[in-house]
Amino acid sequence: MMKSLALGTLVVLGLAGAASADDALRTVFVPNNVIYPGDMITADALVQRQVRVSSGNMAVFGENPKDLIGKMARRTLLRNEYVPRSAVREQDAVLQGKPYKVIYNSESLSIVGEGIAQKAGAVGDVISVRNTATGVMFKARVQADQTLAVDEQ
Please, which of 21, 54, 108, 121 could form a disulfide with 142 given CB 3.0 to 4.6 Å? Predict the structure, then answer.
């Protein structure tokens, strides 16, 4: 029993240590402490770490600090652990329950009004909005200037 356990351990260690000659070490940024969902990632919260990547992978998320700094954590990010792209999101440009300028543009008509965001959203997100004058609900896309653009519906 002990011989098979020792042999299995050696095989696993041998496979884990086997790296292709084409594999390269890349530097990625990882949290230096736990970051919780909804927290913004700052430069102070990151440290560099070396990871081995196969030559077939052109880019690794987190190689550039801009991939993470200023983003919000979607889930708990553990200390010294790689951060996958799906674990972060853009910071919210509009907040739930706040009034924002709503714009509708077509070839012959332009309407500007005010609406209440029904949920928070980042630039490019489509969110529900309530017209403050009529109470009608509609969808609008969050713009970089914190306005809400109504698309053809």
Answer: 121
